[in-house]
Here is the input.
Amino acid sequence: MFEGLQKKWKVSGWRLFLILIIFALAGSLTGYVARKLVATLGVEHIVPYILLYVLLLTIVWPLAVLTVSLPFGQFPFFRTYLARLFNRIRGRHTAEKTSSAGTSKRIVIFASGAGSNAQKIIDHFRHSAVSVSQIVGNRADAGIVSIARREGIPFLLIERERFFRGDAYLPELDPAADLLVLAGFLWKVPAPLIEAFPRRIVNIHPALLPRFGGKGMYGSHVHTAVLQSGEAESGITIHYVDGHYDNGDIIFQAACPVLPGDTPDGLAARIHALEHLHYPPTIEKLLNEQP
Ligand code: GRF
Here is the structure.
């Protein structure tokens, strides 16, 4: 039951524990407040007593849940939870960020680094019809592994031999994935994977392609090259993945200035901010445009 709730609400085990505590505390608080109010109003007959009590429960409970969630740092979860609940009661199923087709979508994130982009994507789609169903990476010690564990998302650790010369892990990838999202994944994507997900694999590159891309152009190498070239601006590129490094059709680009005295780290920070801002909504747009 708990695993089902974790999946439904897309929260880690620890967060689910907090949420259940909040429900319990808010429930008790609601009962207490409602009883006190009915007593204050002096209603004695059983039928109006029950009617008033139930009416007060429905009014007090949402307020109690929101109030109790505050000190636990879970206000955003309950705000969205209540908004969806009221929408459902009113017969509206238009939860924010639902894909235009109205169906649920699944994405798989490939990442092998700190995972800051992955985290932004997970946050963006939390409480929406889009779920991050799996995270794939090739380093067991990377930050992304802790993110996957904390978020309760299955993590698939892959190794080079099977990825490039075996079955590319196809049998273990989520077969229902609508989009494979590369976010700091440095290996080339092998042909069987590209064939299995035609135009459904996207990558983000920390420069304005087609310049400063290709083999070896990752992380600080990119920013160092940009600074050495004397470019006045750099930026980000979101593109489809084909069989070559940083080569597929460009989906989206955004630029930022290169400032006098910039270091690779300073430029990287500006680029990261751009990535966090644009990658999640671009993924959302792509999902909405899918048939
Ligand atoms: C990003 O800069 C992205 O452009 C590149 O790898 C980096 C990943 O960073 N492909 P993070 O792990 O998401 O923080």
In short: The mean pLDDT is 90. The beta strands are 105-110, 130-137, 155-157, 179-182, 201-205, 233-240, 250-257. Residues 105-289 form a domain with the Rossmann fold fold (CATH 3.40.50.170).
